[in-house]
């Protein structure tokens, strides 16, 4: 009757998700998925900017999570990053919670 989902909370401790850091971030998220945890919350509280490479990581992980019937949420998003996520239409695909 009731199911309990275990969420993995990932706090991104970067101001900018650039090309170099995006690769490490993708590897880390892939390792979480490899552990059979398909419910992930990413905390963007420290993030001030995200570029196309960072967006690509989010889209890639989202696709993998959906293939496993999991879910992804993003929390702690500032207004600048929220606008960029909206331009990419990520707000239509996953729950995004801003700080403002």
Question: What's the helix and strand layout?
Answer:
Elements (H helix, E strand, L loop, with lengths): L7 E4 L4 E2 L1 H16 L4 E5 L5 E2 L1 H16 L3 E7 L1 H9 L8 E3 L2
Parallel strand pairs: 1-3, 2-4, 3-5, 5-6
Helix pairs in contact: 1-2
Protein model, in words:
This protein is of the alpha/beta class and 100 residues long. It has a single domain (8-98), classed as Transcription Regulator spoIIAA, CATH 3.30.750.24. Helices cover 41% and strands 23% of the residues. The protein is built from three helices and six strands. It has helices at 19-34, 52-67, 79-87, and strands spanning 8-11, 16-17, 39-43, 49-50, 71-77, 96-98. The strands form two sheets. It has a four-stranded parallel β-sheet. Helix 1 packs parallel to helix 2. The radius of gyration is 13 Å and the shape is globular.
What CATH calls the topology is: Transcription Regulator spoIIAA
Architecture per CATH nomenclature, i.e. the level-2 architecture:
2-Layer Sandwich
Distance between the first and last residues' Cα: 36 Å
- What is the SS-derived class? alpha/beta
pLDDT averaged over residues: 91
User: What is the gyration radius calculated from CA atoms?
Assistant: 13 Å
Task: Tell me the strand percentage band.
Answer: 15-25%
Shape category:
globular
Q: How would a textbook summarize the main sheet?
A: 4 strands, parallel
> What is the ordering of alpha helices and beta strands?
EEHEEHEHE
Number of helical elements:
3
